[in-house]
Amino acid sequence: MTDEKAPTEKPASTVSSRSYNPYDDVVGTIDKAAAFLDYEDGIIDRIKNPKRQVIVSLPIRTDAGQTQVFTGYRVLHDTTRGPGKGGIRFHPNVNLDEVKALAAWMSFKCAVVDVPFGGAKGGVICDPSQLSEGELERLTRRYIGEIFDLLGPNTDIPAPDVGTNPQIMAWVMDTFNMKKGYCEPGVVTGKPLVLGGSAGRVEATGRGLMYTAREALKHYGHSLQGATFAIQGFGNVGSGAARLLHDAGAKIIAVSDVSGGIHNSKGLDIPALLQHVKTNKLVKGFPGSEPISNSDLLECRCNVLLPAALEGQITGDNAHRISSDFVLEGANGPTTPEADVILANRGIKLVPDILANAGGVVVSYFEWVQDRYGYFWREKAVRDRLDEMMVTAFGAVAETAETHQVDLRMGAYILAVGRVAEAKRLRGLYA
């Protein structure tokens, strides 16, 4: 080898939402994976079509006493292997096609790590930074009230995503429980510990990224110790991955958030940077660093580029300028199919999102199991079990990729689509 919930500060997407439809990518990738599998077209068509898509109107009373109407979505992609599982996103750019894509990616993510969930996702078009805590609570409760009949520990289980956090999940749980008339903590994951959350859940996606980076580097004959990383996005996922990678001996040379990026070729002092962000909210102005743009961060020389912001960051326009040896996808869908081809042709190894950032859903599964049993594990047990599952998943993806002579993304999709398709074949078609 040569020389991504805490506050969610995310750089804006580099792809216009009007010119890029992530669900088209999902369908195209399913078709490519299906070409390696022996399933009838009807089964594959069922996988390409979400089970349920819901759009709701969300009027709330603002602190100023005015009525403001928001739009919310909830998509249930597939429940063949278990109840739907997927986060709730509060962001100005939320739209139905994005939520459909995120729900499908969750189905495949759960299949790759072999947890008994299908995929779901929700979103509300809003800017949470412009809402008071009271307005956020009223918006969350109205949203859950509108989709209440769709949720449940055996049907559809939300979790945090971009713009949401454990407090918002506490409001989700309370709203559901008040309408049900009894306590059901398993309806949502990513909750505060005192409400049935799991130890290790907040850092789970970042920790899963660290484990996956370790396995990918080792698989290709390298070491995590001393490897250089550039991380786009310094919200819960990006900052958590930075801390854990730093603790494991890697060198973080660049990070970015909505304010822009910072760079130090000798390595950033990550504990000091985390304290700086805690105080100042942004990475901007961190002592001992030079400012860079988000696009410069994506193109800076490093061993591993870790995009942990939003989808559509590495595209056909900038993929030929990526200067890393590896791309480790911390966000969902950060690389477009056109960029995939360019990176592969340039010899850059890519570890796909449905494998790399699956640590969050693995520990969400652990939380759900603990809630259902009413028995909670120590954090070391959570970490050890997460490590084991991520290692197993990486090995299965790498083996599938080698068997079919494809890259890791296609290996992951062949494995995931195959598991979902086989479950559909065995269950048959209810009519």
* Radius of gyration based on Cα positions: 20 Å
Q: Which fold name corresponds to the CATH topology of the domain at 204-356?
A: Rossmann fold
- CATH class group of the domain at 204-356: Alpha Beta
Total number of β-strand segments? 13
Strand order of the largest sheet: 10-9-8-7-11-12-13
- Biggest β-sheet description: 7 strands, mixed
Mean pLDDT: 93
CATH architecture classification name of the domain at 204-356: 3-Layer(aba) Sandwich
Low-confidence stretches: 1-18
CATH superfamily (homologous) name of the domain at 204-356:
NAD(P)-binding Rossmann-like Domain
Fraction of helical residues: 40-55%
Question: End-to-end distance, in Å?
Answer: 55 Å
Quick overview:
This protein has 14 helices and 13 strands. By secondary structure, it is of the alpha/beta class.
Explain what the structure shows.
- With 431 residues, this protein is an alpha/beta fold.
- Among the domains are: 50-186, Leucine Dehydrogenase, chain A, domain 1 (Rossmann fold), CATH 3.40.50.10860; 204-356, Rossmann fold, CATH 3.40.50.720.
- 43% of the residues lie in helices and 16% in strands.
- The chain contains 14 helices and 13 strands.
- Strand 12, helix 10 (337-345) and strand 13 form a beta-alpha-beta unit.
- Helix 1 (22-34) packs parallel to helix 3, helix 6 (204-219) packs across helix 13 (379-404) and helix 12 crosses helix 13 (379-404).
- It is globular and about 55 Å long.
- Mean pLDDT is 93; it is low at 1-18.
